[in-house]
Design goal:
Blueprint: E1 10-13, E2 22-29, E3 34-37, E4 42-47, E5 59-64, E6 67-68, E7 72-75, E8 82-83, E9 85-89, E10 95-99, E11 105-106
Antiparallel strand pairs: 1-2, 1-7, 2-3, 3-6, 4-5, 7-8, 9-10, 10-11
The structure holds zinc ion.
Zinc ion is lined by residues 76, 78-79, 81, 83, 99, 101-102, 104.
């Protein structure tokens, strides 16, 4: 199935602890149907210093953990509203995404 959400999209979180938050999609994990959204689902990890390897320093690091793609809604780049996404095939064969709200199409 084609991706409803791509890297660089703005999305609204609709479920979970960060419900209502908006952010940019930083990564899409297609196999797991998960996305990483900037500023959303921040987790802390206590990391030991590792003398070998990549010179890791110890301490508490914070990073965005992936969330399920069904917990986000695309914010349409045209109408700026959270929307469901459809797909349309152009006459030249290109597949575009379509905002179900304003019907605008985009890559
Ligand atoms: Zn729209």
């Amino acid at each position: 199935m084609a991706a409803k959400v791509k890297r660089g999209d703005r999305v609204l979180v609709i479920a979970g602890d960060d419900r209502g938050a908006q952010g940019e999609v930083l990564r899409v994990l297609r196999k797991e149907n998960r996305v990483v959204v900037s500023g959303v689902n921040i987790v802390k990890k206590h990391q030991r210093p590792r003398p070998t390897g990549r010179g890791q320093v110890g301490g508490i690091i914070e990073f965005e953990a992936p969330i399920h793609i069904s917990n986000v809604m695309l914010i349409c780049p045209k109408c700026n509203q959270p929307t469901r996404v459809g797909f349309v095939i152009e006459p030249d064969g290109r597949k575009l995404r379509q905002c179900k709200r304003c019907q605008a199409t985009f890559v």
